[in-house]
Structure formats: C-alpha cells, structure tokens
Amino acid sequence: MSQTAFSTLNLKPELLSNLSSLGYEAMTPIQAQSLPYILAGKDVIAQGKTGSGKTAAFGLGLLDHLNVKRFRVQSLVLCPTRELADQVAKEIRKLARAIHNIKVLTLCGGMPFGPQIGSLEHGAHIIVGTPGRVEEHVRKGNLNLDDLNMLILDEADRMLEMGFQDALDEIIDAAPERRQTLLFSATYPKQIESIAKRIMYKPVMAKVESTH
Ligand code: ADP
Ligand code: MG
C-alpha cells in the first residue's frame, strides 16, 4: 500500500490546495504509479480494478496540462457509457474547482443531438463522451480536434467489448498525431495490446493488482 502524498508531485498549486480541501491526501497505488509519468507527458497504460482512483489519475493529468486561457478542446476522455461519462465529468469538475472558467462538456449517445451542437458552438476545454456520439460530431464537423493534446481512453476493454472499435479509430484519425495518449482498463486482453501498439508512443505500464 502506497502512502505517497500528492504534495510530492509537481502539480499546479491550485490543484494541490483543492485536493487537500477535498480530503485527498495520499495517492492511491494506481495514482502513485501513473501520475509521475502522466505529468511528465508520457503515454501511459494503467490497469487497475474499479474503485482504484483511475479518474483522478487522468483528471489531474489533463487539468495540470490545460491552458485555460486557450478556449479550445484540449482534452478528450472517451468512456463506454453515458453513466460513466457523467461520473467522470463530475469528478473532473470537482478536481477543477479551484481553476476558474474551465468548461467541461459531455457528449453522449441517447441524448438529443441538437443541443450538443449548440454547446459545441459555445466552446469547451475538455470533452467527456461516448465514442459513437463523439465520432458523429467529429464526422459532421461540429467538433474540431486540431488543438487536442491529450486523449484518454477510460475503461478501454469495455469500449472494445461494446463494439466501439471503429468509432475509436475514426476519432483517433481526426486527432493530432502529436499528443499524449492515456489508456485505462481493468483488464489487458490482446485487443487492447494491439490498439495500444497502434495509437500510443512508447507507453509506460502502470499496473496495480489490488484496490487501495
Ligand atoms: P476507478 O475509475 O478506478 O474505478 P474512481 O476514479 O471512480 O475509481 O475512484 C473511486 C473513488 O475514490 C471516487 O469516489 C474518488 O472520489 C475517490 N478517490 C480517488 N482518489 C482518491 C484519493 N487519492 N484519496 C481519496 N479518495 C480518492
Ligand atoms: Mg473509472
């Protein structure tokens, strides 16, 4: 069990002070294993069970890299379901509380399409969504990924099981090649290994067997 404090990381001071007001002091093992690499800009594959704190691992990484003054989509988080995307967006907003004017937008299937176009026209820094709907917005020209510098696949194994491979490929094709890619998964089947080989650059593996 790791007891490394978040304060050992070189995080933006406003993120650090917000973490202590949230009562997050020690990193969970998956956070301790992945965050130093994520903050260093490396591609990371992180494997850990449900409840191990994966959201804050990538959430802190993307918030630390974000330039709030640049009102463009800089990070994209893809999740298998609307429920998971909503949870991730909620956690990112919580972690971002001390940073003013951050816009996090969710784009999920099963929700009306038109209002999402309106929201995209208003702009966002961070998009959290499901692959099918995000791909549709990219294909129709509603979502421009030219300024994307961080792509996160959350629960990648479930996204593949649900048949999102083609949508993922289309989104990745539309994203800049120079970017940081993070892949989170509970399991690491062959299919994940092969997608990682295609879309990641020298990924670091962070693996934790037990929950914290
Ligand atoms: P996972 O995605 O690995 O299933 P989550 O990211 O949803 O797990 O985290 C599970 C719970 O743990 C969340 O309620 C989150 O707020 C909490 N949590 C995450 N990291 C920490 C931490 N370092 N200290 C305290 N609570 C944490
Ligand atoms: Mg999760």
Automatic annotation (TrEMBL):
Residue ranges of the DEAD-box RNA helicase Q domain?
A: 4-32
Q: Where are the transmembrane segments?
A: none
- Per the Swiss-Prot or TrEMBL annotation, the motif Q motif is positioned at 4-32
Domain Helicase ATP-binding intervals = 35-206
Q: Which family does it belong to?
A: Belongs to the DEAD box helicase family.
**Protein name stated in the entry:** ATP-dependent RNA helicase DbpA
Q: In terms of the whole protein, what range is present? A: 1 to 212 of 462
